[in-house]
Amino acid sequence: MIFVTVGSRNYPFDRLFIKLDELYEKGELKECMFAQTGTSAYIPKHYEYRDFITVEEFQQKITEADIVVSHGASGSIMKALNAGKKVIAVTRLEKYGEHINDHQIQNNVAFSSNGYVLMPDPELTDLADCFQKIYQHVDGLRPWENKDPLAVVNLIDSFIQENWNL
Fold first, then answer.
1. What is the pTM of this model?
2. Is 135 exposed, middle or buried (0-12, 13-18, 19+ CB in 10 A)?
């Protein structure tokens, strides 16, 4: 099962849900999917969804899933990684009104450059390729070991310092 989560903040991510339906229509996705769609207005055609779910339901969906598609929120990504799931981290973009800025790019790049998640390009043109890498077992993902509670903060901070000279 694929679990998609985009959080509960007041930013829609219709672009992601439309792309997922397109992948089903092209036959590139066949596995059952459940999406937590948040404030998105788009109504999915090919998979189950609910706007919001409880913390308990969220954890249950993570447990049931083989693959988790998460927006670039470190908390959602970490919960999936801590559960040992394959994660595709998608990026909300400011230009589409999906967030207040493009900070999710840096978040997702930090996780993906370290081999913990797959990250499609921010326009989602290669989202199908991420699924194929997982299905064909050529994803190259490293297992996540979260021994340090600040590991994700340090990971993202180091990446930003090295790449953006802040």
1. 0.87
2. middle
